Amino acid sequence: DLVVTGDLAWVGSDILLELLNQKGLKLTNHSDCGKIIFQKQEQNVQSGGSGCGCIAWVFSGFFAKKIRLGEIKRMLLVCTGALMSPTTYQLGENVVGIAHAVSVCGKGE
What we know:
Blueprint: E1 2-5, H1 9-22, E2 30-32, H2 33-37, H3 40-43, H4 51-68, E3 74-83, H5 86-90, E4 96-105
Parallel strand pairs: 1-2, 1-3
Antiparallel strand pairs: 3-4
């Protein structure tokens, strides 16, 4: 029913949809926890929250209830994030991205 990412926010969500579109995949059931938590204009936020932190907070406080009520039957949580290291940054190397995917199903699914 739903694909939820951690904190791709506005920048990363646009990139995700563009890359999938280039591969001929249209993702119409995507939601991003960073976009749910933060208000872009009021907080001058582009991206940068903790993907794993954002998804844990939004899932436990919002989506878990929808699953229990049967409003969402199945969802894929993609806990997006970056493996940042001061050494990697100081050496001018690329920041490694990571995403753990967890499938969550309601009762009877």
